[in-house]
Known about the structure:
alpha+beta, Porin, 2 domains, two-stranded antiparallel sheet, 3 helices, about 55% strand, elongated
Amino acid sequence: xxxxxxxxxxxxxxxxxxxxxxxxxxxxxxxxxxxxxxxxxxxxxxxxxxxxxxxxxxxxxxxxxxxxxxxxxxxxxxxxxxxxxxxxxxxxxxxxxxxxxxxxxxxxxxxxxxxxxxxxxxxxxxxxxxxxxxxxxxxxxxxxxxxxxxxxxxxxxxxxxxxxxxxxxxxxxxxxxxxxxxxxxxxxxxxxxxxxxxxxxxxxxxxxxxxxxxxxxxxxxxxxxxxxxxxxxxxxxxxxxx
Length: 242
């Protein structure tokens, strides 16, 4: 004889049926095929993402802007190379070494300023791109330093206001030391295997300047024109991962 059906029995059977339906529906949902676009996107993301190590390597490179300025016959130009370390594809300690030169002829008194000297920069870049796909967005800092000697001359004789004597001005070996900072924002992309291309914009500001009492330098190697004490610059770099 079949036992009578009670409300409690019906509720238990209903719960069991709902649980069975949920278990059967789960594999079906998991096996629902994705669209072709979703599959392609998932594969591309998997390929682009790579396992990142603490030490990701070293890169060397050179700035191409100074070369263009030199060829174009600018009043000043600087040739620059760099080396940097890649940590976690996020943090990039960097060292920049360059040689700045200027042969500027002023309009007043037919004066001429000349300097040729090395300069140094050290700093850090941080990559804000979350994907490790070869493209990088940088924000960085630099500290620049250059000790140098400069030459100043004037073909037009200057007249002493007290003794009223005229004499041509020719000052050589004037010594100066410059310290400055730079805020850097830039982009970088991978062209092929180990070759990369990057460009940045830099806000520069003088930290400390020590010059000869005879006069301030017209150009500071690595910084640019000494006046004003703040300014803008930039680089266009070709880099090689090694």
